[in-house]
Protein: Acetylornithine aminotransferase
Amino acid sequence: MSWTPSREDFDRYMLPNYSPQRVIPVRGEGSRLWDQQGREYIDFAGGIAVNGLGHCHPKLVEALREQSEKVWHLANVYTNEPALRLAKSLVEKTFADRVFLCSSGGEANEAALKLARRYAHDTAGAHKDRIVSFRQSFHGRTFFTVSVGGQPKYSQGFGPVPGGIVHGEYNDLATARELINDDTCAVIVEPMQGEGGVTPATPEFLEGLRQLCDDHAALLIFDEVQCGVGRTGELYAYMRYGVVPDILTSAKALGGGFPIGAMMTTEEIARVFVVGTHGSTYGGNPLGSAVALAAVEEISRPEVLAGVAERSARFRQHLEALNETYGCFREIRGMGLLLGAEFNASFGERGRDVLAASIDEGLMLLVAGPNVLRFAPSLVISPEEIDEGMARLDRALSTLTG
Structure:
């Protein structure tokens, strides 16, 4: 069948729950993409923090190629070598004793929340079912995870939400203290909110949540789907804070572009997920596990993690310079290579206007709400590509302010 799809075909064949840009990328290498017309773009979006090693990284391509010639998928009544190698690597590199593999961050958080409730049920009783989350948080698109997430727009219109879920203010320990009690089974928090505006947690907030969970025999869940796997300059953000959760969820950059997620926890908590309590058809898929292992091993190299801080500083310098020129940002925040630049009142909610103008200049980036530009590039993007991408952003901003 000889047919070249166009952007208009999205509107014809796909559900209208997305509104993609007009260009269709067809090829990628490192931190650059090319569209159907052969036009080149610098990628500051990273597939929403997914492409931690950029596009078509040689080690990921080789891992996928090798595994594709062996076995692609097995029913979960069997195990496989790539899944076991990946689980072993994650255990050796983190606090965790046990790993559950799945297909996405939403699945990982679903598993974490179910595990927390099951553990509380089995150890304390059915009354201990309260889940504490925080406003502006995002934990996935399943019905359970959008209900736990702190953005009502994602759960409105879908009927009654699950009970036992309450929301406090992020980085406000006083509101958390009011909500966490002896009926709380779990507190779930992003060490850095991504979709909610690229806002890092304060050390005092995470330390306080850890203490409150200990005081009330509740489990602390860190959602590191977006901020994990090298994004902050540590393999996982909890290592940067020195606060160890009971359960950690991971996805996005874990597979470097191949769909995979993981939920990690301790031996004591894992024991309640006996045979039949939870599952995932594609969880531990040999193809995904092989690619994820290659991604984890490459990203965890000291020189890759150390390079994140250097690149982050370069991004910040450019953003500060743009702010001096255009006076457009109220705050530049984030950690490592997950950065947010919030527009001030004079620039307003023009995030999507900037995205469209940037595409015209050959730059791909993100928003986190209508008034925050979000940067989540490859962890190994070159300094020259940062400089060139920021020059393109400069030109885009000039078209909106001239």
Summary: The CA atoms of residues 98 and 270 lie 7 Å apart.
